[in-house]
Amino acid sequence: MKFVGIVGTIAEKSYNRKLLEYIVKHYTEIAEIEMLDIKDVPMFNASKDQTNSEVIQNLNNKILAADGVILVTPEHNHTTTAAMKSVLEWLSFNVHPFENKPVLIVGASYFSQGSSRAQLSLRQILDSPGVNALVMPGNEFLLGNVKEAFDDNGELKDERTAGFLGSVLEKFAKWVEVLKALNTKEKEETSWEDEDLTAAGAVDTTVRGVDPDADDWVELAAQKTKAAQKKEYVKLNSGLLTVDQLNWFLNSMPMELTYADDNNQFIYYNHTKPGKEMLAPREPEQTGSPISKVHPDRARDGVKKTIHALRTGETDLVKMPVPGNQINERYLMHYYKAMHDEEGNYRGVNEWVLDMWPIVKAYLEQTGQKLVKDENAQDVIASASKHEEAKVEENIETKVNTSEEPRLDEGIDSVTGASE
After folding, report:
1. 157 with 243, same domain?
2. What percent of the chain lies above the pLDDT cut of 90?
3. pLDDT given for residue 418 in this prediction
4. Where in the numbering of this chain does the NADPH-dependent FMN reductase-like domain appear (predicted)?
5. Which of the two ends of the chain, N or C, has the fewest CB atoms closer than 10 A to its terminal CB?
6. CB crowding 261-286: b at 16 or more within 10 Å, else e
7. Higher per-residue confidence, 180 vs 225
8. Residue 131 CB neighbour total at 10 angstroms
9. What is the CATH number of the domain that holds 292?
């Protein structure tokens, strides 16, 4: 289990920082706990959005990846600190890493109340719209008279205090596990019909404040995020490329690639040909649109089934031939691969479309072999519907599926290109 901890102060000397350091040192058997530094977080100013700065993005990503968050607050004027408040403002402005995130509040103060009023204030902030954290109820840890609480080695002097702190952390870990189990059950109980293709929600990578239906979404989103362009470098997990190099690389791929994120927003394709010349037609002005806007109504049930199967882990790869394939002329395949981050969270769909026939044809020519029809095999080019068996016999090479029932293989583009 992984927790992150934030101390609500930038002071060089802090008893609350000493408290978090004690927690990090002594409770490794409960969880791995990482302290996050906030000394470089700017004072919140909505007029000068710094959400995309390195320090805010680092906090955002660390919190998103953690199982839970420990907030350690001093008390200033009967409330939490300006430093803590500013951090929470940034992390509820254009990013929302605290949403549905388990949080434990602890704190220390010079006198007997142990930051109780600051903790109450912090609970109210964390419960507000835009933050929506899941703060652990009860089990308050209020360290009073903190000047006398630690010895010279940073150890808590009172064994009962240390024991109580340990019990609070153990309960927090159990609470995190319970919430995780509930969320898992909730995900398991969802139906493919619940899959939202309208991108009405948001994920941590969603570019907010830009109309997804705008024809120039890419340019507007790039301006909003101050995205790297042309000769500017992008660090990848195993390389360093400029944006131009990335485009050259992706556009040279022998297949059409599409990225739909975990919010079901169509955000990329490798634009190599005009839309009408593509295997699965797309147009630049469609980028940014929700998936619902790039498919006709008749295809949407199939799209929902495909994405739901990938999102829930029912499968991590859906593959299907495209209706209209012709033997010994073309064999288009659509592949839909679930993408996951380092923590195993679903992050969207990687779709690629490929004409398999040139590859098969080259293999046959180079090896001197030929294809022979298996008379006992069901024809996969023809409709699988038993009601169409007679038609299949009449025209086995060009028959396509005409079933009106939604199927799993009516995926993102198996019925129609995204340009329709």
Report:
1. no
2. 66
3. 41
4. 1-146
5. C
6. bbbbbbbbbbbeeebeebbbbbbeeb
7. 225
8. 20
9. 3.30.450.20
> How many domains is the chain built from?
2
Contact 294/314 with Cβ under 8 angstroms? no
Which run of H or of E encompasses 2?
strand 2-7
Average pLDDT, the chain: 86
Three-state DSSP class for residue 217: helix
Its domain, for residue 184, covers 2-188
Would you say residue 208 lies in a domain?
A: no
pTM of the model: 0.54
- Tell me the H-state helices in 114-258: 116-126, 159-188, 217-225, 243-251
Q: For residue 187, what pLDDT is reported?
A: 59
Nearest to 105, CA basis, from 81, 76, 74, 141: 141
Amino acid present at 7: V
Phi then psi for residue 113, to 5 deg, are: -80, -15
Q: Which residues contact 110 (CB under 8 A, 6 or more apart)?
A: 145, 146, 147
- Does 145 share its domain with 100? yes
* 277 and 367 belong to one structural domain: yes
Do 173 and 236 belong together in one domain? no
Say which CATH number the domain at 23 has.
3.40.50.360
The answer to whether position 71 is within a domain reads yes
Tokens found for residue 109: 């103060």
pLDDT tens sequence across 360-396: 999 999 999 988 888 877 655 544 333 333 332 333 2
Is 212 domain-assigned? no
State the number of CA atoms in the 13 A half-sphere of 269 facing the CB. Answer: 28
Does residue 290 belong to any structural domain of this protein? yes
Does residue 119 have a pLDDT over 80?
yes
